[in-house]
## 1
Amino acid sequence: MAENKLLMFENRLRKVYKHFAKIARKQNIACFRFYDHDMPEFPFVIENYNGTIHAAEYKRRHGMEEAEHEVWLAACKQVIAEVTEIEPELVFMKIRQRKEGKEGQYQKFDTAKQERIVPEGGLNFIINLTDYLDTGLFLDHRITRAMIRDEAKGKRVLNLFCYTGSFSVYAASAGARSVTSVDLSKTYINWAKRNLQFNKLYDSDKHEFIQADVMQVINDLPKDTFDIIVCDPPTFSNSKRMDETFDVQRDHILLLKKLLKACTEDGKIYFSNNYRGFSLDRDVLPASIVKDISAATTPFDFQGKLFRSCFLIQK
């Protein structure tokens, strides 16, 4: 029975990998997702990072003893390697806890370090395949990053909850007048700076990195300063380094009102989050334009499986 299920997994994987890899080649995309919990018995999210595979298994009650689970995981790894025709040592397997928001996902995972440089949109990004549950590059924002680059030339850009700074890199590559990146994590602020440096874009006069609680930083933002603000907060955060908890549904209006004040007259906010039941309270926002761009910013490899909301809000 177990072998039959493994064969079903292989068949499914072969089908979706062929499909998504073909589209990726046509679009000159090197990093893409090709499996997302397609079969309940194989609850993986599997992504190809330019010839290296990142497979995260969602932790669940599988009924297997630890040793049995290890054997099962090894068998799945072998199937993934065979289907993708990538060497098993380049297939990295992880177990992912189901936690609300991103705060719980950013915890250190392993003592080893396997960093790679991967291309996207003519730029390069440092990813880490072993140390953390996330790689350092959220593939679902591929289109949104390109939108920022199209608009950032000569603009003052603020990237909040910046993670590893991919939006900052795109903005800087477009010739943004300035880019300010804010995140609570020292690890991710340093990572963001390294990404800019690796792309030979870093300019200390134009690019500022702030390690701090975003909700505190926005209290002190000068009025009418930023032309573009990128804000992709966690669903929920209760870090010990924060004064208060953050809940995106509860706190988004407070957050966005402060950001609108910081926007220039024609300033734009790209606001997104991963809370499945999120509802934007449009009526109380002092904005001239509030546009849901979730569908327009969903890449081909996330169609029908992405529960992220994305909005363009204009002052």
Note: Residues 52 and 90 are 5 Å apart (CA to CA).
## 2
Amino acid sequence: MADSNIIVGEKIKAIREQKNISIEELSERSGLTTEVIASIEKETSLPSLAPLIKIARGLGVRLGTFLDDNDELGPVVCRENERNAAISFSNGSASANKYMDYFSLAGHKSGRHFEPFFIDIKPCEDKTFVNSAHEGEEFIYVLEGEIEINYGKDTHVLKKGDSIYYDSIVEHHVHAKDGKAAKILATVYTPF
């Protein structure tokens, strides 16, 4: 896997400008502040997944549009050694360190309705994460390590081989348990 990250902010800005949507209008459509949108576009802050989903809806595009959408109508095969572009997210903490690398497993599939990811969760001792909520559903399967999922008022601990499926409209946060690394397979569905 290469170290090159997809430049999400540049793609958001290009799509916004192509559609003649101002930052103020996107702010109204997404419910995010103009400062947050400008910061993401300038790549000065690492977003969590929830703001990207809100921006995608505000722009009238699928989340996958930021993750290298292409026009493949048939099946898409993604080999382990071909996963070469990651998008990194913060955990919403004040330090905004990147702690998750998302590798899209269907970036070339046109018209998809959910986003499958291989996610590498890095060790993180920072426990000041912020729960997020967005429309849709998520499914997570733990490949390595242990994760904690804050979901509403509950916390779920998942080990290798465990899975969880939940409505993402409920406030939630996914992170490695005890600050140790983990690897998961996740799918995110957001209604368009």
Note: Confidence is low (pLDDT under 50) at residues 1-5, 90-97.
